[in-house]
TrEMBL record:
Name of the protein: HxlR family transcriptional regulator
Native organism: Caballeronia catudaia
Record keywords, A-Z: DNA-binding, Transcription, Transcription regulation
GO molecular function: DNA binding
Residue stretches making up the HTH hxlR-type domain: 13-110
Stored PROSITE patterns: HTH_HXLR
Keyword check for Transcription regulation: yes
A Pfam short name: HxlR
Alphabetized PANTHER family for the sequence: TRANSCRIPTIONAL REGULATOR, MARR FAMILY, TRANSCRIPTIONAL REGULATORY PROTEIN
Stored SUPFAM superfamilies: Winged helix' DNA-binding domain
InterPro entries xrefs: HTH_HxlR, WH-like_DNA-bd_sf, WH_DNA-bd_sf
Length: 166
């Protein structure tokens, strides 16, 4: 059996055990930022809009569970960046499924899709699917080029600007 943290759910249910690690908004948003390429604490905090304490707590929990590892990028002052481990990368299909569900069920009809994913091999947008509708091949994150909608890019830029004013 794979190792799990000492404070695992008092159950053999894999869903309950998974929720122990990733079952809150802030952890999911931290993971989203890591998948989007953010590696530094400030960038993760800005885009999740979590407090520094919340961000620290979530990153430490993900590190303790083996989903994230810290790597120093500066010695003076000592600063770390956060990288997804193999275990952390394996969670991506869950984030992708949440994205598809949110695009389908949590948006107004007039809102554009926040992220577009294009299958590198055939050059077609995969929409919300994990199988390319053009060539029929299953796709993973490594097979896709991502681009943000204008509204999502504007929203993220506004967070950065607002954070720097504080």
């Amino acid at each position: 059996m794979a190792s799990v943290s000492d404070d695992k759910a008092d159950t053999v249910c894999p869903v309950a055990r998974s929720v122990d690690v990733v079952g809150d908004r802030w952890t999911i948003l931290v993971l989203r930022e890591l998948y989007m390429g953010a590696t530094r604490f400030e960038d993760i905090q800005i885009q999740t809009e979590a407090t520094p304490q919340m961000t620290t707590t979530r990153l430490k929990a993900l590190e303790a569970d083996g989903m994230v590892e810290r790597q120093p990028y500066s010695e003076k002052p000592l600063r770390y960046e956060y990288r997804l481990t193999k275990k952390g990368l394996a969670f991506y299909p869950v984030i992708y499924a949440l994205r598809a569900w949110g695009e389908t069920w949590r948006k107004e009809k007039n809102e554009e899709v926040a992220m577009h994913f294009v299958h590198r091999e055939c050059g077609h947008d995969v929409g919300l699917a994990n199988v390319c509708p053009h060539c029929g091949k299953p796709v993973e994150r490594k097979d896709l080029d991502a681009s943000m909608s204008d509204s999502f890019a504007t929203e993220r830029a506004a967070r950065r600007t607002s954070f720097k004013r504080k």
